[in-house]
Design a protein that fits this description.
Elements (H helix, E strand, L loop, with lengths): L4 E7 L13 H7 L2 H6 L4 E7 L17 H20 L3 E6 L5 H15 L2 E7 L20 H5 L5 H4 L13 E6 L4 H10 L2 E4 H7 L1 H9 L6 E8 L21 H14 L2 E7 L10 H13 L9
Parallel strand pairs: 1-2, 1-3, 3-8, 4-5, 4-7, 5-6, 7-8
Helix pairs in contact: 1-11, 3-4, 8-9, 9-10, 10-11
Length: 305
């Protein structure tokens, strides 16, 4: 059997964010030795370098959206790169960049699923539900809108990035670690019936039970996409993000989450986003992210049966 090929795709932009600095995320992950650590797991890793797109003009919102044209350009680049890797049978990893870029990666994954007859499941590991619309958020920052856009709520240039219809429906998402949802957004996620396992749910049920629920129904015909926003983690262990929210998963809870995803054997694409070295301490958040990504690819304390 040939080795699984992992393709690293750097996307150095903070075009959708409210703070500058996520554009440095891809390099921080490389400095933390992501490729080498995955190669040690027996994987074949190809670093495709960085995608290119417009610079961040750092302007206020226009008609409710900040930098919409630039966000579309970056997401089209991600969409094209991701679809190319998936079509070649590779497992693409997006080194972000901010979370608006998941519009491009997941639109590509959804297209790949339609082409191969697979069921899509998206695990959204994040402090935020990212289901905002221009009407629900005054900031206009599109990194708070990707799930809404993927489900058809948002500007047509993003909701129909890969064709003439929204990429996905809310039922494909399982959101884990949520602890910050804007006032207007609460109504939106409720009406859309997004599967959300917030921190209270994790506190009450425990990470093991939550992951069993979130992963239920995954089988041989499932393409599992993991969208890992580093602010999913508690800021005490992961300070290097622009939008910290206290009360996130601990190191052990995060490890268990990743190990249980690995146990399914069905993760087929990954985003690592919102790592912001400008807020980090000696690259510790990037190192932690790489540590957790190793666990996504099967690193464990013991050899498990």
């Amino acid at each position: 059997m040939s080795k699984q090929t992992i393709s690293l795709i750097g996307v150095p932009t903070d075009i959708g964010a409210g703070h500058r600095g996520a554009s440095m995320g891809p390099e921080a992950l490389r400095v933390a030795n992501l490729a080498l650590r995955l190669e040690r797991r027996g994987l074949q890793v190809v670093d495709r370098g960085n995608l290119h797109g417009p610079i961040n003009p750092w302007q206020p919102p226009t008609d409710g959206y900040r930098h919409l044209d630039e966000v579309v350009a970056w997401n089209m680049a991600v969409y094209t790169a991701f679809h190319q890797e998936l079509s070649a049978g590779h497992l693409p990893i997006m080194l972000g960049g901010d979370h608006c870029l998941a519009i491009g990666s997941i639109t590509a994954v959804a297209r790949h699923c339609r082409e191969t007859g697979k069921q899509l499941r998206v695990l959204w590991l994040d402090a935020h539900s990212d289901f905002n619309t221009a009407q629900a958020t005054p900031s206009g920052n599109i990194h708070g809108m990707p799930v809404a856009c993927l489900c058809g709520y948002g500007p047509q240039v993003l909701t129909e990035l890969g064709g003439s219809a929204p990429a996905t429906t809310p039922d494909v998402f399982r959101q884990i670690g949520i602890r910050s949802v804007d006032y207007g957004e609460k109504q939106l996620v409720r009406e859309a019936n997004v599967g959300i396992y917030d921190m209270r749910h994790i506190d009450e049920e425990g990470m093991k039970r939550v992951m069993e629920q979130a992963l239920a129904g995954i089988d041989e015909n499932t393409h599992l996409h993991v969208s890992f926003d580093v602010d999913f983690l508690d800021p005490s262990i992961a300070p290097g993000v622009g939008t910290t929210v206290r009360g996130g998963p601990t190191y052990r809870e995060a490890q268990l989450c990743m190990e249980m995803i690995a146990d399914t054997g069905h993760m087929a694409s990954l985003d690592i986003v919102e790592l912001n070295p400008a807020f980090d301490k000696r690259n510790q958040t990037a190192k932690l992210a790489v540590d957790l990504v190793e666990s996504l690819f099967g690193k464990s304390t013991l050899i498990r049966r």
